[in-house]
Amino acid sequence: MKGIYYNLKLYKAVLKKIGLATKFSMIKYREDWPEPEIMHPNQVKVKTRLGGICAGDIHQIDVSLPFSASIIARKENPFQMGHELVGEVVKIGDEVKDVRIGDRVVFSPMIHCEAYGFDPCNSCREGHYSTCQAIAGFGDGSNLEETYGGEGKFGGFAGGGFSEYFVAFEKQLTVISKEVPDNIAVLAEPLTIGIHAALRKLPQDNETSLVIGGGIIGLMTVAAIRALNSKCRIITIARYPFQADAAKRLGADEVITERNTETLYEKIVELTNGILVKPALGKRIVYGNTGPDIIFDTIGSDSTIDDALRLIKCNGTIVLIGMALGVTKKTEWALQIYKEIDVLGSMNSGLEEWNGERIDALTLAARFLEMNPDKYKGLVTHEYGIENYKAAFKLAMNKRKDNAIKVSFTFI
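RESULT FIELD:
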């Protein structure tokens, strides 16, 4: 079986961190990986059709995430990569109820209590699947834990989109209409990220939202806000004109591609009737009841978080989605106190409350894609065979080349 696995060894990660390892030293491509097989009756075997490259995959390859991220990594090693995918069910376990052979499915990387069959933990009872304790290897204390290897021997976020086949728990899969093309269905998982982030603080119709980032998560955040029926004003900061075009098509009212920080701040203040105040030293700060009401930071770097803290209005809300930060060194966190800013983290997704319904974000994403697939056309810009993984990853790392938005591996 062709595929890419991640090899999480501490010495390799340290060498990569200090620049003494090659670009792809953390991953291994083989054409003779054994096909994974169903090990538990609540599992499903899937043949991958299309697997998208996520910024999170790049962070893994570059080891640019903090070491604390290892607590939610897969416990087996090496493990399959790729969590944005669409595939076809080829085999089901004896206890699988809602998925059938031949179904086309999309995938959630979170294996929460219900997926394993555990009694729900406190997070799962609240619908917070992304903070389920089973991800860190803790079940319900029952004998069922032993079937998965025992406490601390299971858990982590799952993948499989960079391999010809993978095995998932039934509760990780959602059937999607065959009327939705693969290159749109593969956007279901990133759309869940936008849905969850938007519902962390859904903008009211009379508010202004600023979305930092024109990559796929930024675009999916814009799309989610609109799909969730918010008529708020959306300003997006994008790096490239092709990202700006996509953001406008998905529902952004204005898009700024300015790279100079001072000019960028002035444009945002102009659009939001803000007031810029100059401190004794350093960049200017938006102050008072002016500026964006909500900022969604889909990059999450040291500099973008600092920008968000400076640009948000006093008493506004920042939703952090991107994970490029690691340990911040330049962010002026004191601004959170001075301006009384609410800062919310948004990790993956779970059960969401919307329109009086409690619904899994992946089901909701599939519904939105099925309602208007044409809206998402053209976002998957490049497809590669898995054997050309180096070229695919290099393009995903440098999207300006060839105007890349979503780079994917095709297995059909």
